[in-house]
């Protein structure tokens, strides 16, 4: 099925562009937390990346609506586009939380979660790069995404547990709990995209 009609390979190009854009957003989020000098400027750059992601998603859906034959199931194309869009939305939402809650300094756990998000996005980008190629390569990157999501779960759980043990200010506790959970949800969205890619592999193998 892959590479069935040359003109339909545009979907692969668009998905690759979309996943590269998401990785750029994740890189900017990690940089934002590693060098917290001007978080507002960092957040604006991430928002620009999120807007680019919206435009690519729109283009994919438009092309899907106009295409008679697609390189894989229409439902999977739509689901993958939506899952990738959710990834950059959660990266943007994470950055916004640091501005909205006037965070003075990111915690070590927040930085660790941002790094896991970047690694997860890179793994999804690598999986997407093999669309139209060898299925087994897609599968191995999806396994990596699943492992990273489990690691993010662990970091988030331990961070929230420590928060309840050590934080005396209830407002700060509420703020940081939401920040950790938003960061962790970004890795959940990466896993959603990986699961859809695995489904595509199974259906087209």
Automatic annotation (TrEMBL):
<dbReference type="InterPro" id="IPR038078">
    <property type="entry name" value="PhoU-like_sf"/>
</dbReference>
<comment type="similarity">
    <text>Belongs to the UPF0111 family.</text>
</comment>
<dbReference type="InterPro" id="IPR052912">
    <property type="entry name" value="UPF0111_domain"/>
</dbReference>
<protein>
    <submittedName>
        <fullName>Phosphate transport regulator</fullName>
    </submittedName>
</protein>
<dbReference type="InterPro" id="IPR018445">
    <property type="entry name" value="Put_Phosphate_transp_reg"/>
</dbReference>
<dbReference type="Pfam" id="PF01865">
    <property type="entry name" value="PhoU_div"/>
</dbReference>
